[in-house]
């Protein structure tokens, strides 16, 4: 495989993404150690998305003004620092929430601006594969992190220390690998005599709001429902920490494998992504309602992961067409702002399951996904 500049950036995205899901299987360890409730666990998982808010507000516009490198590299170092801080926060629920928030801030800046950097770098080299590269490396990282953390958390030494140390070392190596990638914005920006254009091209707001934004929510709503919802709300029969890590790895790994199919599916990628969500939620609802078929939750989780990967690849591939010249960083940040709304899904499921059976909630999500699939098919 040619070690192109966009792929070097992809490895950086992989490194940051791996760290964001290291805490996922360890939630069960924190639950036992700190006596946390199911609602607190899902809130800890989701507060990561809250940390994204300041990152997405400032990172995209800052990168469009001062360049991609000046935002991505410091944010990646912040992500490494967050992993180290998790070690010191292991005995305090409040500190865990603060560090998880910080992790979200670093990751949000890297993903939004880094994705734009990958797409622009690939286009500069005459290729249109940047969106797929970003989607595959991010979802691949999301898969690797929880598998490693889950195995160490169940059977390895220092379960709340070693996964974070390994991630910090790996992430710093990826920063070094991406260091020499060329900046994609001009070193000197021309002096503007007219007002700076808005982030979206004229006439693109309707497509962005009604087509791309709903699809963006699916990017993380689908896989996080499986990764954080199944272990906490449905339960796993044995070795829960390891199985949670493997479940997360299988779910998000399927997303990494599915993302390249965007090249073949083309305009059908978004409808297929939504259909995957409908099938995955429906199968998970059956697994929740009938304990005898609990194992159905595993293939259902993989289908949800595939839907998330396809939604990410489809959404990123559409951004250059709706972004104004030089504003792809801002538009990418907007896309991820909607995408990370999906991180609230496990918390929403946990809250609703207190008054409505979780199987009913999942069935309703399947119905919503089918409606979305029809809407995306009409918008092709």
Task: Record keyword descriptors for this entry.
15 helices, globular, mainly alpha, 77% helix, 380 residues, Growth Hormone, Chain: A, single chain
What does this molecule look like?
Helices cover 77% and strands 0% of the residues. By secondary structure, the chain is mainly alpha-helical. It has one domain: Growth Hormone, Chain: A. Helix 3 packs antiparallel against helix 13 and helix 8 crosses helix 14. The radius of gyration is 20 Å and the shape is globular. The two termini are 33 Å apart. The relative contact order is 0.16.
In short:
The chain is built from 15 helices and no strands. It is mostly helical. It has one domain (about 5-180, about 200-380): MFS general substrate transporter like domains (Growth Hormone, Chain: A, Up-down Bundle).
Biggest beta sheet summary: none
CATH homologous superfamily heading: MFS general substrate transporter like domains
Structural class: mainly alpha
Low-confidence stretches: none
Rg computed from alpha carbons, rounded to a whole number of angstroms:
20 Å
CATH class: Mainly Alpha
Strand content: under 5%
Mean pLDDT: 85
What's the CATH architecture?
Up-down Bundle
Shape, principal axes of CA atoms: globular
Helix count? 15
Please report the total strand number as a whole number.
0
User: How many domains comprise the coordinates?
Assistant: 1
The CATH topology label is Growth Hormone, Chain: A
Helix content: over 70%
Distance between the termini: 33 Å
- The SSE order reads HHHHHHHHHHHHHHH
């Amino acid at each position: 495989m040619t070690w192109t500049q966009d792929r070097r950036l992809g490895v950086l995205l992989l490194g940051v993404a791996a760290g964001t899901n290291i805490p996922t299987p360890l939630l069960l360890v924190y639950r036992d150690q700190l006596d946390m409730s199911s609602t607190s666990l899902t809130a800890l998982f989701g507060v990561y998305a809250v940390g994204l808010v300041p990152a997405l507000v400032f990172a995209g516009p800052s990168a469009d003004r001062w360049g991609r490198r000046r935002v991505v590299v410091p944010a990646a170092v912040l992500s490494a620092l967050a992993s180290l801080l998790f070690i010191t926060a292991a005995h305090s629920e409040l500190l865990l929430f603060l560090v998880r928030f910080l992790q979200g801030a670093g990751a949000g800046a890297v993903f939004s601006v880094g994705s734009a950097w990958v797409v622009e770098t690939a286009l500069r080299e005459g290729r249109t594969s940047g969106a797929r590269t970003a989607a595959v490396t991010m979802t691949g990282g999301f898969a690797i992190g929880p598998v490693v953390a889950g195995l160490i958390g169940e059977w390895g030494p220092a379960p709340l220390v070693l996964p974070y140390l390994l991630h910090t070392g790996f992430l710093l190596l990826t920063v070094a690998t991406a260091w020499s990638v060329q900046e994609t914005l001009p070193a000197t920006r021309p002096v503007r005599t007219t007002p700076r254009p808005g982030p979206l091209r004229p006439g693109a707001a309707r497509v962005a709001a009604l087509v791309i934004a709903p699809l963006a929510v699916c990017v993380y709503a689908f896989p996080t429902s499986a990764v954080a919802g199944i272990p906490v709300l449905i339960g796993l029969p044995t070795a829960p920490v390891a199985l949670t890590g493997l479940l997360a790895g299988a779910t998000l790994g399927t997303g990494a494998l599915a993302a390249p199919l965007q090249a073949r599916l083309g305009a059908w990628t978004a409808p297929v992504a939504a259909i995957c969500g409908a099938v995955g939620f429906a199968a998970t609802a059956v697994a929740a309602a009938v304990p005898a078929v609990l194992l159905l939750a595993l293939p259902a989780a993989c289908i949800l992961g595939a839907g998330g990967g396809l939604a990410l690849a489809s959404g990123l591939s559409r951004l250059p067409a709706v972004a104004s010249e030089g504003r792809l960083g801002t538009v990418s940040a907007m896309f991820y702002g909607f995408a990370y709304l999906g991180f609230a899904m496990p918390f929403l499921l946990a809250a609703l399951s207190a008054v409505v059976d979780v199987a009913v909630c999942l069935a309703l999500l399947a119905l919503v996904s089918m409606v979305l699939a029809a809407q995306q098919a009409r918008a092709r």
